Amino acid sequence: YPNSYYMNMGATYIHPEVQIQVFDSNTNKSVSEIQHINLGEGIPFRTLTYPHQRNWNDGALFYKNDTLPSIRSQEQILYDSPNMREIGMVFKMVPFNDADSKNIKKICDTFRAASLPSYGNINTQTFKESKDTAGMPISGSNFISVPLLCKFTFMKGSDTNPNVAQFKPCAITRVQVNYTPDGTYATYHDGAMVATELSINFLESKLIFNDEISQGF
């Protein structure tokens, strides 16, 4: 209803209507009074005062959890869709010997590789069983595979730590290696970094529901 509007600073809702008045084409003067044709009630939940004695337990502006939501109800405004959880971790690693330096580099390279897709040499069961239109097996050498998922657990000794929320399998969305965590570029005699900071962002691959909180998630 494009011709419905508010008055009195939005306190009064004017219903949609058509106003007709007849004019004399020669004198350009009205020969009748304005006739009002009501087009309906409009969209009542756009008004701030409809009805004048609003029942706040009903209507699209009330958060009602016991019935089906109305069109663009407050449920839809407040809650759009479930979201995947995200978590970020930062590790500062300082080597004490040559072996530590090599292990730190392996750790960084492993997470960097796991966050990236792979190309070719795919040897999964899906490709082994797939065939083309001629009945020939499909090679995985021309396919790009998605990055790996990882599963980590916060531990307390040899047991799961019950004081920390655990996560389901996660995808690695970001890996950043900072070779100057102390603000200065410094290396040992062989070029190994004096300190390395590894930042990793994870995105959970499965939804979590409220009943899983008691299970440690």
Q: Choose one word for the global shape.
A: elongated
Q: Give the DSSP E fraction (strand runs of 2 or more residues).
A: 15-25%
Which structural category do the helix and sheet elements fall into? alpha+beta
- Major β-sheet strand ordering: 5-12-11-8
Q: Number of DSSP helices?
A: 3
Radius of gyration: 33 Å
What are the secondary-structure elements, in order, as H or E?
EEEEHEHEHEEEEEE
What do the pLDDT scores average to? 79
Low-confidence stretches: 46-50, 59-64
The biggest sheet amounts to: 4 strands, antiparallel
Q: What gap, in angstroms, lies between the N and C termini?
A: 49 Å
Task: Tell me what you see in this structure.
With 217 residues, the protein is of the alpha+beta class. 12% of the residues lie in helices and 23% in strands. It contains 3 helices and 12 strands. It is elongated, with a radius of gyration of 33 Å. The relative contact order is 0.13.
Give a topology summary.
Blueprint lengths: L4 E3 L4 E3 L2 E4 L14 E4 L35 H5 L7 E8 L4 H17 L3 E2 L5 H5 L14 E2 L3 E2 L4 E2 L2 E2 L9 E9 L17 E9 L13
Antiparallel strand pairs: 1-2, 3-4, 5-12, 6-7, 8-11, 9-10, 11-12
Summary keywords:
217 residues, alpha+beta, 4-stranded antiparallel β-sheet, 12 strands
Short description, anyone?
By secondary structure, this protein is of the alpha+beta class. It has three helices and twelve strands. The model is unreliable at 46-50 and 59-64 (pLDDT under 50).
